[in-house]
Specification:
The protein has 228 residues and is α/β, with parallel strands linked by helices. It contains 11 helices and 6 strands. Strand 5, helix 7 and strand 6 form a beta-alpha-beta unit. Helix 2 packs antiparallel against helix 9 and helix 4 packs parallel to helix 6. Bound molecules: adenosine-5'-triphosphate.
Amino acid sequence: MRIAMYGGTFNPIHLGHMHAATAVAESLRLDKLLLMPAGIPPHKVLPEGSATPAQRLEMCRIAAGYIPRAEACPLELEREGASYTVDTLRALRQQYPQADLWLVVGTDMVLTFDRWRQPEEMAKLCRLAVVARDEQDRARIAEKAAALWESLGLVCDIIDCPALPMSSTQVRETMDERLLHPAVLDYIRQNRLYLPSPEHLRAEVEKRVSPKRMAHILGCERMAAEMA
Ligand code: ATP
């Protein structure tokens, strides 16, 4: 059995994630690709207005329907405290003792691999599937992969996958629907996620209209609020 774990905040999962996941599933001929939303990510604090863990998991479930052999996995959300990848890999290894197990990472992650929690242990538990954006990226990864093999005995498989230039931050800030799968977008709309704040909306409108029109719009806003 060939299994890969693709972890992230997925706040929300976007087309860039889905494109990379598809490339990994196909090039490694996976039997299972686990989309694993992180519970409390050790490296970042979730911004205000983020989706809840259950909603991030649900968006991964929806997206998994459009990625070959993918499924959403709640393992990190069910565990108490910070999510460390090494703990997740241990749990997966227990569940699938005979499987070939990969951890999917981007270039930045592989370059800083030595600073993750217990990299020696991780090297025993899995291989890395590193998503390379272009030739230059591939060269940097290959160099680092050789060093990781020397120091930790870690095996890296490089997956060629021109990344789609987008991030979840960009999705949250712009709600540009071209960055999302339509089914994920539907879920976001139905659950009223990532709504812009009134301050953000005012600032955006101000950029687009004359000062005279802005004063009129603010007057309408005040009047509407009074009437409501
Ligand atoms: P944020 O903007 O909130 O930091 P993000 O878009 O970087 O989020 P994460 O959930 O942090 O998304 O990413 C999960 C994994 O997906 C990470 O390994 C990250 O490197 C990778 N990733 C993020 N964006 C892309 C993309 N456009 N193409 C391929 N992989 C990506």
